[in-house]
Amino acid sequence: MMGNNMFGNTMWAGHWLWMLVIAIVVVIPAWRICQRTGYPGWMGLLILIPVINLFLLYFIAFTDWPADKTGYRNG
Hints:
This is DUF805 domain-containing protein. Keywords: Membrane, Transmembrane, Transmembrane helix. It comes from Marinobacter lipolyticus SM19. By secondary structure, the chain is mainly alpha-helical. It has one domain (about 15-65). It contains 3 helices and no strands. It has helices at about 15-35, 50-60, 65-70. The longest helix has 25 residues, at about 15-35. The N and C termini lie far apart (about 55 Å).
């Protein structure tokens, strides 16, 4: 269908930039939420993995937060 188009099998370079922007917009709040609940911030990176991100949301929503037990508040 693409014929001899040299760009037929490649992705547009702007696609990768857009994916980076979306990842930053999603990861930063997830990182902060994990920190404020008392979990390590790196757990916010799990929001980028399909299906695991749903488990992360339910985990944060329904478990006891370490920050509530210690009275710790970040920010």
